[in-house]
Predict the 3D structure of the following.
Amino acid sequence: MNTPVLSKKFAAVLSFLLLSACGGQGGGGADADTPEGQAFMYRDSVMTILANKMGTIGGMAREEIPLDEAVFTKAVNDLTSVAGMVTEGFMPEGIPSGSRSLPEIWTNWGDFEQKAQDLQTAAQGLADAVSSGGFAAAQGLVQGTAGTCGGCHRMYRERTE
Ligand code: HEC
């Protein structure tokens, strides 16, 4: 009775080969048929959005990108929403090929959740500042918010050489 298991495995291998043939990077190369592969693709997407929003927010805060209050405000609100989606990208546990997650995420899960909470709290602080005082009130909080990204990466993301 293990035919279904075998054919599922075969399908997984096939889809892996197809995906790798597309030269996928990051989560794009993961096996979409496994829960671990789906979690990796999910967190890869979440991180890509966080980086995009943080790029806009940081660029405007450092005055490297021309300020547009509406764009800044939207980026801060988007960042805050997506910050609440981080931890679910690490369930279930798994480090598929291409993933830079470190096993310590799951052995120190409580601390990892705290690092995600630090980002959420900082992003919410930024959002509150924008809604009460606009860009001027938020600008000084941006660096601290960006620091919470590194605070997690230092411990839980494999370094690239
Ligand atoms: C709670 C921990 C945590 C927080 C907070 C966090 N990250 Fe990450 N991030 C990770 C981990 C772990 C990975 C590696 C994921 C993997 O490859 O499996 C990662 C990967 C990434 C990547 C690489 C994505 C890719 O292409 O695979 C980027 C970019 C990134 N993070 C940006 C950010 C930014 C910007 C922030 C803050 C706004 C942030 N992260 C906050 C844990 C975190």
User: Anything to note?
Assistant: The radius of gyration is 19 Å. The CA atoms of residues 88 and 156 lie 15 Å apart. The chain has a mean pLDDT of 88.
